[in-house]
Design a protein that fits this description.
With 244 residues, this protein is α/β, with parallel strands linked by helices. It has nine helices and eleven strands. The longest helix is centred in the middle third of the chain and has 14 residues.
Length: 244
Amino acid sequence: MAGRRVVSLVPSLTEAIAVSAPGALVGATDWCSHPAGLDVVRVRGTKNPDVERIVALAPDLVVANEEENRGPDLDALRAAGLTVLVTEVRTLEQAFTELAQVLTACGAAARPGWLAAAEAAWRDVRPGPGLRRRAVVPVWRRPWMVLGRETFAGDLLARLGVENVYAGHAERYPRVPLAELRASGAELVVLPDEPYAFAPDDGPEAFPGTAAALLSGRHLTWYGPSLAAAPAVLGAALAAAGRA
Protein backbone atom coordinates (compact mmCIF):
# COMPACT_ATOMS: atom_id res chain seq x y z
CA MET A 1 0.00 0.00 0.00
CA ALA A 2 2.90 2.32 -0.65
CA GLY A 3 1.93 5.85 -1.50
CA ARG A 4 -1.39 5.85 0.36
CA ARG A 5 -2.96 9.29 0.89
CA VAL A 6 -4.81 9.50 4.18
CA VAL A 7 -6.89 12.18 5.92
CA SER A 8 -7.46 11.65 9.64
CA LEU A 9 -10.40 13.17 11.49
CA VAL A 10 -9.35 11.74 14.88
CA PRO A 11 -6.46 13.32 16.82
CA SER A 12 -5.24 10.11 18.46
CA LEU A 13 -5.33 8.23 15.16
CA THR A 14 -3.50 11.11 13.49
CA GLU A 15 -0.60 10.63 15.88
CA ALA A 16 -0.63 6.85 15.45
CA ILE A 17 -0.60 7.10 11.65
CA ALA A 18 2.01 9.85 11.53
CA VAL A 19 4.56 7.88 13.54
CA SER A 20 3.75 4.47 12.04
CA ALA A 21 3.19 5.22 8.35
CA PRO A 22 5.38 8.27 7.64
CA GLY A 23 4.24 10.28 4.65
CA ALA A 24 0.76 8.77 4.47
CA LEU A 25 -1.08 11.68 6.07
CA VAL A 26 -2.06 14.54 3.78
CA GLY A 27 -4.74 16.09 6.00
CA ALA A 28 -5.82 16.26 9.63
CA THR A 29 -8.09 18.31 11.87
CA ASP A 30 -7.14 21.53 13.63
CA TRP A 31 -7.26 19.54 16.89
CA CYS A 32 -4.59 17.07 15.78
CA SER A 33 -1.78 18.36 17.99
CA HIS A 34 0.54 15.34 17.92
CA PRO A 35 3.14 14.65 16.81
CA ALA A 36 4.51 18.16 17.25
CA GLY A 37 5.24 19.94 14.01
CA LEU A 38 2.95 17.79 11.89
CA ASP A 39 2.96 19.43 8.47
CA VAL A 40 -0.28 18.52 6.70
CA VAL A 41 -3.31 20.38 5.37
CA ARG A 42 -5.75 21.26 8.17
CA VAL A 43 -9.42 20.50 7.52
CA ARG A 44 -11.14 22.26 10.47
CA GLY A 45 -12.51 20.30 13.43
CA THR A 46 -13.72 16.82 14.23
CA LYS A 47 -17.35 17.98 14.33
CA ASN A 48 -17.21 20.41 11.39
CA PRO A 49 -14.70 19.09 8.85
CA ASP A 50 -14.25 20.99 5.61
CA VAL A 51 -15.66 18.39 3.24
CA GLU A 52 -14.68 20.30 0.10
CA ARG A 53 -11.09 20.66 1.23
CA ILE A 54 -10.90 16.97 2.13
CA VAL A 55 -12.27 15.96 -1.28
CA ALA A 56 -9.76 18.26 -2.98
CA LEU A 57 -6.93 16.40 -1.27
CA ALA A 58 -8.01 13.26 -3.15
CA PRO A 59 -7.25 10.85 -0.30
CA ASP A 60 -7.35 7.09 -0.74
CA LEU A 61 -8.76 6.83 2.77
CA VAL A 62 -10.43 9.02 5.40
CA VAL A 63 -10.08 7.72 8.96
CA ALA A 64 -12.88 8.57 11.41
CA ASN A 65 -14.49 7.44 14.64
CA GLU A 66 -18.14 6.82 15.50
CA GLU A 67 -17.89 8.99 18.60
CA GLU A 68 -15.58 11.78 17.44
CA ASN A 69 -17.20 12.46 14.07
CA ARG A 70 -20.75 13.15 12.88
CA GLY A 71 -22.62 10.80 10.56
CA PRO A 72 -23.78 13.49 8.10
CA ASP A 73 -20.19 14.63 7.52
CA LEU A 74 -19.02 11.09 6.86
CA ASP A 75 -21.99 10.49 4.56
CA ALA A 76 -21.03 13.61 2.58
CA LEU A 77 -17.49 12.30 2.14
CA ARG A 78 -18.80 8.95 0.94
CA ALA A 79 -21.20 10.68 -1.43
CA ALA A 80 -18.18 12.45 -2.92
CA GLY A 81 -16.68 9.06 -3.70
CA LEU A 82 -14.22 8.78 -0.81
CA THR A 83 -13.54 5.65 1.22
CA VAL A 84 -14.20 6.25 4.93
CA LEU A 85 -12.96 3.88 7.64
CA VAL A 86 -14.99 4.40 10.82
CA THR A 87 -13.53 3.02 14.03
CA GLU A 88 -15.33 2.10 17.26
CA VAL A 89 -13.27 2.22 20.44
CA ARG A 90 -15.04 1.60 23.73
CA THR A 91 -12.53 -0.69 25.43
CA LEU A 92 -8.77 -1.08 25.54
CA GLU A 93 -9.00 -4.34 23.59
CA GLN A 94 -11.00 -2.59 20.88
CA ALA A 95 -8.39 0.14 20.74
CA PHE A 96 -5.58 -2.33 20.08
CA THR A 97 -7.62 -4.16 17.43
CA GLU A 98 -8.77 -1.00 15.66
CA LEU A 99 -5.31 0.55 15.75
CA ALA A 100 -3.80 -2.49 14.07
CA GLN A 101 -6.47 -2.40 11.35
CA VAL A 102 -6.13 1.34 10.77
CA LEU A 103 -2.35 1.22 10.49
CA THR A 104 -2.51 -1.66 8.03
CA ALA A 105 -5.10 0.22 5.95
CA CYS A 106 -2.83 3.29 5.98
CA GLY A 107 0.12 1.34 4.62
CA ALA A 108 2.22 0.81 7.74
CA ALA A 109 5.00 -1.58 6.78
CA ALA A 110 5.02 -3.50 10.06
CA ARG A 111 3.40 -3.62 13.49
CA PRO A 112 4.91 -0.59 15.26
CA GLY A 113 6.98 -1.02 18.37
CA TRP A 114 4.89 1.47 20.35
CA LEU A 115 1.80 -0.71 19.90
CA ALA A 116 3.57 -3.76 21.34
CA ALA A 117 4.89 -1.57 24.17
CA ALA A 118 1.39 -0.32 24.93
CA GLU A 119 -0.01 -3.84 25.05
CA ALA A 120 2.79 -4.89 27.39
CA ALA A 121 2.32 -1.83 29.61
CA TRP A 122 -1.35 -2.60 30.18
CA ARG A 123 -1.10 -6.39 30.37
CA ASP A 124 -0.29 -6.65 34.06
CA VAL A 125 -1.82 -3.42 35.35
CA ARG A 126 -3.25 -3.80 38.82
CA PRO A 127 -4.46 -1.01 41.12
CA GLY A 128 -2.15 -0.28 44.03
CA PRO A 129 -3.13 -1.08 47.63
CA GLY A 130 -6.00 1.08 48.82
CA LEU A 131 -6.51 2.72 45.43
CA ARG A 132 -9.76 1.02 44.45
CA ARG A 133 -12.26 3.87 44.86
CA ARG A 134 -15.72 4.91 43.71
CA ALA A 135 -15.54 8.00 41.55
CA VAL A 136 -17.42 10.41 39.34
CA VAL A 137 -15.63 11.40 36.15
CA PRO A 138 -16.80 14.74 34.71
CA VAL A 139 -15.84 15.47 31.12
CA TRP A 140 -17.66 18.81 30.86
CA ARG A 141 -19.22 21.53 32.97
CA ARG A 142 -21.92 24.08 32.17
CA PRO A 143 -23.69 21.67 31.98
CA TRP A 144 -21.99 18.94 33.98
CA MET A 145 -21.49 15.75 31.96
CA VAL A 146 -19.78 12.58 33.17
CA LEU A 147 -18.55 9.26 31.87
CA GLY A 148 -21.39 6.75 31.75
CA ARG A 149 -21.50 3.26 30.27
CA GLU A 150 -19.16 1.69 27.73
CA THR A 151 -16.48 4.33 27.34
CA PHE A 152 -12.81 3.86 26.52
CA ALA A 153 -11.73 6.19 29.33
CA GLY A 154 -13.98 4.35 31.76
CA ASP A 155 -12.37 1.04 30.82
CA LEU A 156 -8.87 2.41 31.42
CA LEU A 157 -9.91 3.82 34.79
CA ALA A 158 -11.51 0.53 35.83
CA ARG A 159 -8.22 -1.24 35.14
CA LEU A 160 -6.54 1.26 37.45
CA GLY A 161 -8.99 0.65 40.29
CA VAL A 162 -11.49 3.45 39.68
CA GLU A 163 -15.10 2.32 40.01
CA ASN A 164 -17.19 4.75 37.97
CA VAL A 165 -20.41 5.55 39.86
CA TYR A 166 -22.23 6.07 36.55
CA ALA A 167 -20.84 3.05 34.68
CA GLY A 168 -24.31 1.50 34.63
CA HIS A 169 -26.10 4.61 33.36
CA ALA A 170 -28.28 4.24 30.26
CA GLU A 171 -26.28 6.96 28.49
CA ARG A 172 -22.59 6.99 27.66
CA TYR A 173 -22.14 10.67 28.59
CA PRO A 174 -25.07 11.63 30.80
CA ARG A 175 -25.79 15.15 31.98
CA VAL A 176 -25.98 15.03 35.77
CA PRO A 177 -26.77 18.01 38.03
CA LEU A 178 -23.90 19.00 40.30
CA ALA A 179 -26.01 18.40 43.41
CA GLU A 180 -26.53 14.80 42.33
CA LEU A 181 -22.82 14.33 41.65
CA ARG A 182 -22.01 15.63 45.11
CA ALA A 183 -24.56 13.28 46.69
CA SER A 184 -23.44 10.21 44.71
CA GLY A 185 -21.25 8.82 47.48
CA ALA A 186 -18.11 9.09 45.36
CA GLU A 187 -14.81 9.01 47.21
CA LEU A 188 -12.99 10.64 44.32
CA VAL A 189 -13.65 13.05 41.47
CA VAL A 190 -11.54 12.41 38.38
CA LEU A 191 -10.96 15.53 36.27
CA PRO A 192 -9.19 15.11 32.90
CA ASP A 193 -7.93 18.17 31.03
CA GLU A 194 -9.89 17.29 27.88
CA PRO A 195 -12.39 17.59 26.36
CA TYR A 196 -13.05 20.19 29.07
CA ALA A 197 -9.81 21.70 30.38
CA PHE A 198 -10.26 20.99 34.09
CA ALA A 199 -7.44 22.51 36.14
CA PRO A 200 -6.48 22.92 39.82
CA ASP A 201 -8.55 26.12 40.01
CA ASP A 202 -11.36 24.94 37.71
CA GLY A 203 -13.18 21.82 38.85
CA PRO A 204 -12.01 20.62 42.27
CA GLU A 205 -13.71 23.54 44.04
CA ALA A 206 -17.09 22.17 42.92
CA PHE A 207 -16.54 19.04 45.04
CA PRO A 208 -15.57 20.28 48.52
CA GLY A 209 -14.42 17.50 50.82
CA THR A 210 -13.82 15.04 47.97
CA ALA A 211 -10.35 14.05 46.79
CA ALA A 212 -9.68 15.20 43.22
CA ALA A 213 -7.41 13.57 40.65
CA LEU A 214 -6.38 15.85 37.79
CA LEU A 215 -5.48 13.61 34.85
CA SER A 216 -3.89 14.04 31.45
CA GLY A 217 -6.74 13.80 28.97
CA ARG A 218 -4.38 12.63 26.26
CA HIS A 219 -3.33 9.63 28.34
CA LEU A 220 -6.91 8.90 29.40
CA THR A 221 -8.82 9.35 26.15
CA TRP A 222 -6.34 8.96 23.27
CA TYR A 223 -5.74 5.55 21.67
CA GLY A 224 -2.31 5.77 20.12
CA PRO A 225 1.36 5.99 21.16
CA SER A 226 0.38 7.66 24.46
CA LEU A 227 -1.08 4.33 25.59
CA ALA A 228 2.40 3.01 26.32
CA ALA A 229 2.98 5.58 29.06
CA ALA A 230 -0.65 5.89 30.16
CA PRO A 231 -0.64 3.30 33.01
CA ALA A 232 2.29 5.01 34.73
CA VAL A 233 1.08 8.57 34.10
CA LEU A 234 -2.51 7.95 35.15
CA GLY A 235 -1.56 5.67 38.03
CA ALA A 236 0.75 8.31 39.49
CA ALA A 237 -1.95 10.99 39.33
CA LEU A 238 -4.49 8.71 40.99
CA ALA A 239 -2.02 7.75 43.70
CA ALA A 240 -1.26 11.42 44.35
CA ALA A 241 -4.96 12.10 44.81
CA GLY A 242 -5.08 9.28 47.32
CA ARG A 243 -2.36 10.95 49.39
CA ALA A 244 -3.93 14.39 49.24
